Each structure stands twice: as structure tokens, then as C-alpha cells.
Request: fold
Amino acid sequence: MSDILCEWLNREVMLSRPVDPNTLPKEFSTGYLIGELLHKYELQDDFSQFSQSGVANAKLNNFSRLEPTLQLLGVQFDQNVAQSIMTEQPGAATKLLYQMYIALEKKKKAGLTGVAMETMRPAAPAKLKYIESTLYRERLKNLTPRQTDLRLQQVSEHFEMKSKNLEAKITHAHIVEQQKVQKLQEEQRVQDLEKQRMGRRRQNEIMARIQAAIIQIPKPPPNRTLKAIEARKILKKKKEAEDMHKEIKKFEKVIRKGSPAPSSSQVSDSNIQESLKTLDLDSAAQDISEQTTTELLNTYSEDEYIRKIQKRLEEDTFAREQREKRRRKMLMEQLIAHEAQEEAYREEQLINRLMRQSQQERRIAVQLMHVRHEKEVLWQNRIFREKQYEERRLKEFQEALDREAALAKQEKIDYEEQILKEKELHRKIAAERVEARYKKHYSICQEVINQIIDLSAKTGEYRLLTNNQIPIKLMRDWKEIFFNGKPLYEQALIEPLPTEPTADQVVELDKMKLLDEKDYDEYKSMTGEWHPPKENSGNKPPPNNNILGYVIRRLMAIVYPPKAEPPPPVFPSFRIKGCILGKLFCGKTTCAKFLEEGCNIQILSIDTLVEEAIKTFHENEIKIETNLIPQEAEVSVKQNELSIYAQFGEASEKFLKKGKNIPDELLVNIMVEAVKQTPQKRGWIMDGFPMTINQAKLLEKALTGCDPDEAQVKDEHFRKPLLVTDPTAPKDPPLPLPAFDFALLLDVSDITVLKRMADSKKSTQDQQEDSDQASDTELKEREKIDLIRDQMQYRIAGFRESWPKLEKWFSVQQNILVKVNAEIEENLLCRRVKEIILEEIFKKQNKREKVEKREAEKKEGTLTPLQPTETLTDKNKETELISQDKEPAPTKSKVPKELPKKSDSFKDKKRKKDEAAKGKDGANKPGSARGKSPEDLPPSTAVGPPPTKPGSDKWVYIDEPLPKEIPEFLVPYWDMVENNYVNTIKTILRHLRDEQHSLIYYLADIRNNFLNYLKRPDHKQEFVSQWQADFNSTADDLWEDEETKAELHQRVTDLRDRLWDICDNRREEAEQERADFMNDGWLPDHTGIVMNHFLSLMQVEVDRFQDTKRLLHDYYRGMEGKIPTEASQEFTRIPLLDIVNVEQSGDQNKSRRIPVIPRRAPSPEINTTKPKSRGTQLKSNKDENSSENVAFSFGMDEKFIIDTWQTAVLAISNMVTAEKQSKETEEEKEYQQTEIKERECQKSFQATGGKAAGKDAKDTKKQPPKSPTKKKGAPSPAPVVEATPVPLTPEELKKQELKHKMRREYFRALELEEEAAKSRLELIKIKAIAFVEDLVRKAEETYKDMEKWLGARFLAEMSSVEKLTEVARYHIESSTKIQFEMVLEDTDFFISSEVKVIPDPVPQPHPPPAETSANSALTTSQLSMLHKQFLQLAPKGLIPSKTFIDIFLDLITLNLGTNNLPDIWLRLTVSDLQNLASMLTVHSELIDWRRFLLAASQPWPIPSVIQLLKTLHGFKAVDEAASGFVTHEYYNQVGLWFKGSEDLKIPESPTEPLPFNRLEHLITFFFTLFADDRMDPPQLEYIKMLLYFASHPDAVEGVYRALSIATGTYIHRKKEISSCMVIGL
Reply:
């Protein structure tokens, strides 16, 4: 049954912790799991008040709450069942769970809820059940023992157990002491017996000597045989007596061992009688032996010595008799005590057998007692309730008072202890918090220090690479990486980037992106590395193209229209809005109540609001139930009648019933609803709300309508362009005012919070003691305080986690936070808070008055001046149009100065051409107004404002409608242009950065390689050594010969010339190596790569201009209603340098997308290979050629960069000019079309008008086409005819004005782009030339350094040769040999005093080491001698103690051990040897001589168990056959846990012997000691040897060590708890 119930609880119900059948009564004894089970079936609504604690109060609380629910289910449950479950009686919990399982399954099948079951119960039984529940609580409270009683009982049981353990330990210690005393007595007795045996032996020896001295008188043969027979009998009796004596010893040992325990001391009477008999026989045998001895002594000797021996024997006999009497007396006393103990044990067993009962009988008896008690209580309650009620009430009341007083006192003590524990816990948490903060700061500081060290190391590394000239660009990059917390050194390679990069590769990618962004920002803003030089300081960053920015913003607004924001919520303007925040017990509620009373401000507490909402929901629910509405319409009516507040209460109650927290959204809705219901004049302050940053943001959104998260994240589609900005774009609307006017923080420390909590608990206890009865509100407050006390540490920790975010929100983002120190008195704190509130109210009123004044002033200022401004703007428009025709807008671009004329309309140009073709007479006729051009008219007197430039702040942009397809095409096109531009520039700048790094490393490598090449080895030393050997080999008699000296001087001269030739050859080789470095082609190749990168930057700028021009062209054509034209010509491409120098055909060059120009090499005269020769002329020629080569290449590169820049600038200017010309041609075509239309209009007019008018019209229509072809001086009536144009309609005039304005705006946008592109191209040209020049300069410096190193090296080598020559000539003149070696190494010459050319005499060898005996230690030779002697006598290792003593006695007494034993061993006496033998013999007469030799070989390092096991594993690894034996070779290979002495000092004097390595000889001796010589070759049983080494003075520890060796694993010894520790516990 238990298994079935456990499976149901674990799988179906899924309780909070798994249940096991063995622990079922214990798990359900508290009632918590029963409540959780009912809560899972939604029957126990107050499950949150259940406690998991196992104390009596918690159990009483849980089972009191369970009884109504179980009665509702129909489960039999009363106080007896509850008590049996609480006392963990077997079967009680299982029975109750089975009943609950049946009832819950019925409920589940019926589909009833707890509310439905309560509703279906009749009213009368429900009331009766309520009364029974009350009685059940009282009875259960009486049956359940108090926690204090249980604690007292536990304490008493604990001390009883302590006392029992203490008594047991004292008894055990007493027994151990007795055993020690008995052991000492036994050892003393053994020593006495040994002394007697030694005395007897000496007596026998004396008797033998006496008998040898006595003259033997021959006797008849029969008599001899009789005496021999009698002697044999006597010896036989002696032997029997000794055997009996040994048996008695064994018996006594058994008696001693079995005396403490009764079971081990059971000895039969027959055994005792037998032992007594053996004692009698032993005494008789001894008497007989003594009598025979006395007879012999009396017979053969009569001197005084014999009498003394007889007297001694008599005394020994008397002492032995007395000892035997005492022994018999002790045995009889032990026998009597044993019989008494056995009798007591039998009586105790009989009593236990009679008093024993089964567990079932006791359980039945207890149950019968409970049933009988229950019947009595029911009978008394029903019959004697009224009679004994008053008496029992008074008695119970008095008992309750006493009990409550005792409980209150105990609770007070417990509470004080709890407070101390909480303070200690708080200190611990604070210490952990401080430690965590310290670790965090330490890790940050460590990271910063590591980065500083990396920066220093990087700086030092690059100082070595760049010769202390680190580029500024590198330092800026390192600083950027350092400030962003990235590692300076490369963590991983990112060239072959995998699909899933590692963490180090991600870091490297971040570094690359960071530097790319930095370089791009500098390039875009022309700062840092891209800042124009001082001589070009006028080249500032180009201004923003406002026209292009407006165009892009308009296109994006069309494609991605902005979303409409919802209107903000409307709230009345309250007097004050704020919140008071802080920890628990900081004074929030106290200050809030004071403000509510003193300032008439509404206080909003979230706890109170939630309770009111739930209460409102219950009140509305009761109203609905009293209306008796049918079930079908109940739900709809409920929804209609419930208010918003009641709906919030219903939702809150659902979450609380499920044991969950109320969501932040619901809390904020409740708070906002309370704000809506607050009167406007009062204002409101929130008490302790918001508590988290999420609540603050939700509250901000609900009160202001502004979502902080959405305000930070902008719309993805509508983004700002990267390359241009629009100054006319609407600015972001200002953020609304915060929801609060202030946020007040009452700041207190954690210690103060804990103190206030303790004081509040004490005050509540005092109030509880003073007032006998408490109201429901007071009880609720007490329960709240108790709950808060349990959760205090978690509340404090939660506030510390959430407050930093709230502090940042209120202080940084909203700037409304006010902090107040709340660790002051209550009155002062309330006054301070009131002052702050009043000050905030005053500030808010002042701001409101100022805003009202400003609004009133704005209204007064905008009433009258509207009409004059409109008229002025109309006149300004007219004058602007006139002034635009007269004065074109000036430009700052470098395009030809005639651009203002090109900006005129085509009609004006046509009219000017016609007027130029007319005669001077027609042009100067007086009164002919038609012939006068607009330039000839007198200027008007009215002077208007200057014309507005397109793109300025006052310019009105054209917003003509566009076809739908154009924005949809141009916006993605512009995104592509921006992305390509930014990504390409970042890539190029990254490559330039890499090229700078590669240049630094290349120059450093060639410098280091050249230095290493200069230091390459040579053969000069060989010649010097050979010369020195020849010089020293000169005969002694030839040293003073002049011819010999001349010959030696000549040899020195030849050596010097040869060495100089070697130096010259090395210099020429070094010069050739330098020339190879200069002509390896790396510098020209990488110069070309760098130039190509800068040319690519120019190409990017040209592409940007072309793409921008195309976008503007399509945009304005779309506004004109025309179809965008396709790009007729390809984009302009800037040629790059061909670094590979591969010849290609013309077709291939044409097919290429990017043109390539071959790089011209220097003239062959400069690059010709120089012949090898000595002298400075060759060096100067090479230097000149190298410098000319580098200068020539730099001049070519600079010219190529300037030519390319001019090509790019010219291409941009040509594109602008072509675009304007195309516009003029379009206007000309349009003008021709308008002329055709005018002719048609003239024809129609001629048909309706007169002939003269018709002829004039025909003349005017025929004349304009011919007028351009006529000569300048030909008179013609054409001007008179042309001066009468057809009047245009206002719509056509407006269209012409719009086209004219559009053309101006378009051309201005192109001019701004042209100016910006040229400015950036010029900067790129300057930087490219500077970069190439710096590269060439660094290369020249490197080549010059190489030349300087080469010259210095050559001079140093020549100087060293000169020094060698001087030394050699000095020795020749002084006629002395050169004893020490002459060394010519690199550029140094010296005479090495460590190397002698003439050998020294061979030193004498040291004498062999000899071992001396130190203190009492045996030498290895002495140990070997003893080993041989013992091995001959006892090969198996065991030797009798007598033989052992005899061996050492012979060595000591016969002077055989003078060389075999130390001096102190020669002084040993027989008693010392006997003591030594007794120490080596344990319960045996045999001695293990290997053990003796092992102990005598000390000192040597004593091994630990781990060292022994390590040695054992080494032997097993070598022993592949697992035989247990190893040879001497494998033994030396594995070794022991110690080695020979390594710190032995070798004496300086050769006469002194070498030190003796004793440990090394001991390792060899141990193999000889434990090896088996019978095997060939000898083999060692290593486990047996290690068992010898495992011995220990402590026998138990020795057993554990031996077991570890035998098993091959470390067996730990369990440590026993000492008696003092037990007493302390």
C-alpha cells in the first residue's frame, strides 16, 4: 500500500520533494505535505501559511488548518489521528493518505471544486462542523506537547546520553588501567622467572665444574646403572614439572584476558581442579628436584659455598610455596565472583523475559487508552458541560496565563537568540558582499594592470623594432584598444576564419572592427591621422550637402513613413506627485502618515490597495450571490457589475491562491487606478513603490504614455543616412516630464534596520502582555511583523540588488532623487521630509506660473502681425525672382567662373544671342521699348533682400510629387552606395594599417639579419692558433738569435696581412649583402601596394560622386515628370599600378574593369651590379646609386599620385560640366517645342485677325530661325516682331519658375558634392605622398645604419689585428713563450687566462672513501659481517635467543668484535644482551635477526605509507610476470624512497679521502639482507621486504601500514574521539 501511495504522490501529484515508503511517517509528520497535496487539488487556499518546520507550534498550525478541509472531503480525522501522525506512529499516515486518495479521486471524477463543495453543504451541519473544528483545535492543543517541553526533554535526554557515555568511558579507562597493571605484573613475573632460570643455569655450571674437579671413585657396575636410572627419572620429572608450569602460565593468561567480561570469564570447575592438580604436581616435582640437588650437594661438598647454596635453595622453596598458596586463594576468589555474576545475569534475563511485551500489544493498549479517553471526554462534555464550565474556564484560564507567560518568556529568549543569529548572519552576508566587491575590484585592477603591462611591453618591443621611433598612429591605435579593454597582443589568427569562431577569434574581430571604426571616423571628420597638414590648414572638412540630405530624408520618409504615436494618457495636474523609497523599518510609513495628516496628501500603499481590491471583489461577489441570479446569466452579469478595482482584486486573488507573486503589470494597474481616484487638489505620494526598475518603467509608461525602452530603440526602417544630414529634419520631440515630481530615499544602514526590527518586536510583545485581548488588525500586524522578521535578510538582499538600477533611473535619467539620512529621531525625520515636500510643491507652483506667463505672452504676440508678414513675403518673392535673373549665386568651387551664366534660363541666353546679332541702330532707337532688353532698362529703385542660396537655412525646398517607383528604387540604391562606401574605406584603411606593421617588421628584420650577418664566424682564430703553436715550438736556444727573431717578425707580418685580407673579404661580402637587401624588390612592391590603396581611396570618392550625381539626376527628373535616363557612359575608373609586371594584350586591358598601368623601373645605369673591390670609392658609388635609386623612385611615385589626382579632379569637373550642358540641351529642345507651339497659335490668330496683322505675324515667325545666321551688322525688323510674345498663363509662369528653381537647386547640390569630393581627393593626395615619403625615409635611414655598422665593424676588426701584432712582437723581442691562448673573436682580441697552451701536471687521485662509526651506529661492513654470520646459523631468519646472546657474548668476551662492533657495543653486559633479546622476542623464544639488522642499520629515512606504496607499484611495474621477486638490476632501476646523499662535498686537498655515501651502501645492503641467495641470480621478495619497513612503534598503526602494503591501497585509520572532546560536546 505504501508503494502505491508513494507512486501516486511522486508521479501524479508531483509534490515538492519525493516520498519514500521508509520515510513516509516522518515526511508527513509535520502536515506540510498533506497541505501541499490538498493545495494541488485546489482545496487548501491558506497553504501559504503552512510551515515546513518540525517544531510543535508549526505542526499544531498545520494540522489545525487541515481539519476543516479533511472534514469537507469526508475523511475521518480527529485529534487522535493528528497526534498519531505527529508522533510518527506506523500506519497512521498511510491510512490517512489512503482515505484522502479515495476522497480526492471521487472529487476528481465528480468535477467539484472546493467552493462548490462548501456551497453544497447545508447550513446546520456546516455550523456544527465549525463548532467541532473549534473543539478539535483546543483538544489538539492540549494533546500536543509544547515546544519548550520538547526542547527540555531533548536537552535532558542529551545530557543523560552524555552522562552514560562518560560513565562508559570512565569504566573503559579503569579496565584499561587494570589491564596495564596486570601486564606490568606479568612482565615482572617473567623477568623474575628469567632471573631464576639464569641462576639455576649458573648453579648447574658451578656444579658441573665441581663435579669435574672431584675425583671419581670407581664403583661397581650395578650401582652405576641404578644411579643413571635415578637421574633419568629425576630429569623426566623436571621436564614434566616445566610442562605443567607452562600450562599454568597459559591458564593464568586466559584468566587475565577473560576477567573484564562475564561471557569471557566462564571457567568450569573441572578446569580449575585440573589446574590445581597440575600445580600440586609441579610443586612435588620441584620438591623432588630440590631434594636431589641438596643430596648431591651434601654428598659431594662440605665447604661454606655449598651451604650458602643450600640455604638459598631452601628460601626459594619456601617462597614458591607461599606464592602457590596466594595463587590458589586468588583462583578461589575469582571462582566465587564468577558464580555470583552468573547468578545475577540469570536473574536479569528472567526479569526481562517476564517483562517483555510485543510492539503490537503496546500499540493496542495505547489505542485503547486513547479511545477510552476520548469516550470519557465526550461523556463529560455532553453531561457536565454546564456544571463544570465556570470552574474549568477559570482553571484553564489561569493555566493558560501561566503557560503563556512561560511561553512568552521563552519566546523572548528565543527571539533574542534569533536576533543575535540574524545579526551574525547579516555580518556574514556583509562580509561576503565586501569580499565579492573586493574580488570584483581586484579583478578589474588586475585586468587594467595587465593591460598596462602589455602596453609597456608592446611599447618596448616596438621601440626595439623602430629604433625608438614609434609612429603616432600606432600609439593612437593602442590607446584605443587599451581604453576599450581589449588585449593588445594577438590572441588568435583570423585569416582562415571558421564558421564558428572561437572566443579569441571573436576578440580579434572586435579589435579589428574597433580600429576600423576609429580610422573611418578620423577619415570622415579629417582629424587625427587624416588631419590636413599645417601648410594646407585651409583645407577644412567639406560642409554638409543640405540639399542632398533633404532629398535622402524625403525619399526615406516616402518609403518608410513614420509611425503615428498614440496619444498620452490624460491625468489632472495634481498638486504633488512623488514616492518614498527605502529599506524595511526605515520610516516610510511613519513619514507617509505624518504627511497625510499634516499636508493633506493622499498616501498610496500597494499592500493596502491590493487588500482593498480583493475586499471590493468579495463584496461585489456577495452582492451577486444575494441577488439569486440564474447560473446561465451569472458570468455575464458578474463581468458587467464588477468594477475595474474588483476585477484587479479577482486577478490578484487568483495569483495569491496559486502561491505566486502578483505581476508588475497588475500592481501598476492597481496603482494607476488609485491615482485616477485621487482628488486633484490633494496630490499623492506612493509608499514604498516602485520596488524594481521594471515597475518604475511600467509606471512611467502608464502615467506619461512614454515607454522608456521604446524611446531608446528607434525604428529600424527609418534610420538616419551615414554620409549626409538634413538640417531641416524635425528634431526628436522632447521627452515628457517624469511621472514623479520627486523620489525620496530614506537611507539607513542594515544594522539600524535590524535594531528597529528587534525594538518593534519587543514593543509588540509588551503590548501583547499589557492587553489581554487584541483586535484583528493588531493580530494581522503582528503576523506581518513575524513574516517580515523571517524574510528580513532576503528583503535586505533584494533591496540591495534592485536599488542600484532604481538609483540610476531616478538620479541620472530623471534627476528627481532626494536622499535623506533616516538614522535620526522620528520627529526630526518627519519634519525634514515635510520641508522637502513643501519645497517641491513651491517649485512646481513657480514653474506652472512661469509656463502660464509664457503662453500668455505668445498669444498676445501672435495676434496682429500676421497680415503684414504675408504681404512682405509676397513682395519678397517677386523681388527674389527679378534678382535671381540679374545676379547669379556665387560659388566657391574651382569650376570655371562662368557657372552663374550657365545657371540662367535658355530663353535669356537666346535673347542675348539675338540682341548681339542685331544692329546698333535698332538697339539704340529712342522710344522703342520693345527693342530694349532687360539689361538696358534702368534699374528699379526698390532694393530687396539678397537672393537666397539653395541649401541655406532660408531656402524653401521643392516638394513636387514623385512617382512611386522612383523612391522605391533610389532608397535601396542609396543604402547600397553608403554601405559600399563605408565598407570599402574601412577595408582600405585596414590594409594601410597592415602595411605599416609589415614595414616596421621588415625593416627590423633586415637590420637584425644584417647585424647577425656581420657577426658570422670566420677562420681568423685558426690562423692565430696555428701561429701561436709554431711560435711556442721554437727551440729554447734560438730565442736570442737575431735571424730567428727576424723570421718570427716576418711570420707576424704575414699573419697580419692574411687577417687583413680576411677582414677585407668580409667587408666586401657584407657590402654585397647590404646591396642584396636594398635590391630585393620588397620596398618598391610594397610602395606600389600602398599607392594602390590610396588610389583605391580616390576611386571610392569618385564613385561616391558619380552615384550621388545619378541619384540627384533621377530624383529631379522624377519631379519634372520625366523618365530617368539610363547611364549612357560607364563610370570613371582610376588606373592602378601593375605590381606583378605581367605583359598583357590590348584586348585583355580593354576587357578589364579596372585599368592597370605598368610600374616603370629605374634606369639600368643605376641598377647595374657593382664589382667587388676594396676602398672607399666603391662604397661612395654604391651609396650614391642607392640614394639616387630611392630618390628617383620616390619622384616617380609622387608624380604618379599627382597625375592620378589631377585625373580624378578633372573627371569630376567634366561630369559636372557635362551635366549642365545636357540640361541646357534639354532646355533648348523644350524652347524649340514652345516656339513651334507659338507658331501654331500665331496661325490661328492670323486666321481670325486682319491681313496686316497676319503679314506681321508671318514675318515674325519666319524671322527667328534666320536671325542667328545673319551677320552682326545686317539690319532686320526681327526685334520689332519678336518683342510681341504670346502672353503666358499664370500656370505656365508658375511652372517656369518651378523649373528654374529646381535647376538652381540641382546645380547647387552638384557643386557642393563636387567641392566635397575635390577636398577629400586633395587630402588623399597629400596623405599618400606623405606616407610614401615616410616609407622611403625609413628605408634610407635603415640603409645608412647598415653602412655605419659595416664601417665600424671593419675598423674594429683591423684594430684587433693591430693589437694582436703588437703583443706578438713584444713576446718576440722579450724572447718569452706565450703561455695562455691568444683569442681573436669577432672584433675583440684578448688573452684567455683560463686556457693554457702549456699543460699543467696531473693532480694526485683522492684516497678511497672509508666509513667511520658514528655514535652507536654499525657500519655497512659490520652489518655485512653480522649478516653473513646470522645467515650461516639460521638461513630462514629465525634464531633462538640463547644463540643470539652467545654470538654477541663471543664477540664481546673473546675480543672478536673489536673491528666488527662499535666501542659502545663492546661494553654490553649479559643483562643488556638479555634485555635486547627480550625486546626482540614477542611471545616466542626465537629472534628475527633481519629485523635486528634493519633496526641496527639506522639512521635512514623512515618511509610513509604513500612512499611504501609508490615503491611497491614501482616493483610491480618491473615484475611483469607478477612473481613477487625482482633481480638486483631491477632493484637498482626502481630504487627505494630515498637515494644516496647528494650534498657530499669533495675535499680540495688530494690527500684527504672522498666522503663515504652511507645511504647508497645501505640500499645495496638491504638487497643483500632480504634477497634469497638460493636463487641464481639472487632475487628479492619485495613485498616481504616492504612489510619489514612497514613496522611502527604503535602496533595498530603498524597493522594498518602492513594491510596497506598487502592490499596495495592506502587504508586509512579511523580517528577515535577523545574523552575530552566528548565531555566538551
About this structure: The first helix runs from residue 2 to 13. The mean pLDDT is 75.
